[in-house]
Write a structure and sequence with these properties.
The chain has 4 helices and 13 strands. With 255 residues, the chain is mainly beta. Among the domains are: 45 residues, no CATH class; 74 residues, no CATH class.
């Protein structure tokens, strides 16, 4: 017996967006529903929208940019050492986060200097002279679209703290690995949390080393009027990359 699409959509709308790349592999129907406008309309009506991270990378042997989204990977078995109880290695089932590739359609040929997130759209900010054409990435459909405006728009993008207009020190952060001096580090605001991306070399079979992008999710808390404390919720190796890759953008869209 096949469930009606409306019932499936209602159920999918209640599931975290992190699981959609995996659910899309279940069947052609699920693949279609997880990318349908009706699903995201249901998520909005049910107040189930959430912030989703998109990462844009440039690989040395590929002319086009590569896009990824942070998603949940199925359970896997890994060996972990329980240091507190000093037990031997044991097998534990756990879930981790990964950067899953996303196919982006109709990529514009113009270059842009930054991306600005507005809801479920990532607007391309260009340093070129003002134009009536504005490109944006629709993160629901994973398609670039062009919007024609009657008035020219001058974009100005800046990062600041709304109260102090500057950077603040974040205390705490127990459990966050130390970065090497050569690590490429990116910080992203995702729904009030601080998401940190960095890369480092890790041992690989055959005595070689491979470069991995790592990610940490940090919740923030104000203690008093000046102290900002960070708690590391999780950190994982999320993607293997070429040694000479370029980290282009990381933005959070609301879906």
């Amino acid at each position: 017996m096949q469930l009606p699409d409306d019932l499936v959509l209602s159920s999918l709308a209640r599931v975290s967006r992190l699981h959609y790349p995996i659910l899309s592999l279940v069947s052609k129907t699920f693949r279609s529903l997880t990318s349908s406008p009706e699903l995201y309309q249901n998520r909005y009506l049910l107040s189930r929208t959430e912030n989703c991270l998109y990462v844009c990378l440039q690989f040395p042997t590929e002319p086009n940019l590569r896009w990824f989204t942070l998603c949940r990977k199925p359970d896997k078995i890994t060996n972990q050492i329980c240091k507190k109880r000093k037990k031997k290695k044991k097998e534990t089932s756990w879930q981790c986060n990964v950067l899953a590739p996303v196919q982006i359609h109709n990529s514009p040929s113009v270059e842009w200097s930054n991306l600005v997130a507005v809801g479920h759209k990532l607007y391309a900010v260009s340093d070129a002279p003002s134009s009536s054409n504005v490109f944006f990435l629709d993160c629901r459909m994973h398609t670039w679209r062009e919007k024609i405006l009657l008035l020219s728009i001058h974009w100005r993008v800046s990062w600041s703290n709304s109260e102090t207009d500057g950077w603040e020190k974040v205390d705490g952060l127990e459990g966050l690995p130390k970065f090497s001096r050569y690590s490429n580090v990116k910080l992203v605001n995702c729904g009030g949390k601080l998401v940190v991306f960095w890369d480092k070399y890790v041992p690989a079979p055959g005595g070689y080393k491979e470069k991995m992008i790592w990610c940490a999710d940090i919740s923030l808390e104000m203690r008093g009027s000046e102290e900002v404390w960070g708690k590391v919720e999780w950190f994982d190796a999320v993607l293997k990359v070429p040694k000479s890759y370029k980290f282009v953008y990381a933005k959070a869209a609301t879906l």
